[in-house]
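Please review the protein record below. Let me know how this chain folds according to its tokens.
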Amino acid sequence: MAQPQKEARGAKGSGARFPAAVRDWGKPLAVLLALAALAWYVSAFWFQLALIQGESMEPAYRSGQLVVLDKHRKDFRAGDVIAFRCQEADGILIKRIAALPGDTLWILEGTLYRNGEPDTDFFQAGSIEDAGMAAEPVTLSEEEFFVLGDNLKDSRDSRFREIGAVNREDIVGKVIRWR
């Protein structure tokens, strides 16, 4: 006696759990969701893309240039380029660290002095036309950084009261230099 044939799994009327379209797209969709979750995790905690807007960091960075921020490293040094939240500018700014927590700095006759010594590592002596609030000595707290844009004539930075010193907690990340 012949045995009855079993109905093909997933065939119409078989009571299959998922329609064919879901079965066909389920695995690629799961992979896509996993990749999206991984991208979110990396962007939230490790690396993030940022867009340079404006000319304040020229010639090192151009307006419209994409940069990668390292959000994990917190060992900042003078000369590092960082991104930080600035409520007064209603966004994120990218500038170069000119002075570190605990430093005393001032700008005299166009030259940046850090802890009593002229600092010409990143800014040419006599090149800073507007000293702003650094026309008098400024001593940073243990959580503050003084930042300047590379294009000193076209930069709103720590010299101006509306920006001021940058608190460590406002730093989003350090710009990774690829060259």
Q: What stands out?
A: The CA atoms of residues 98 and 147 lie 5 Å apart. The chain is about 15% helix and 30% strand.
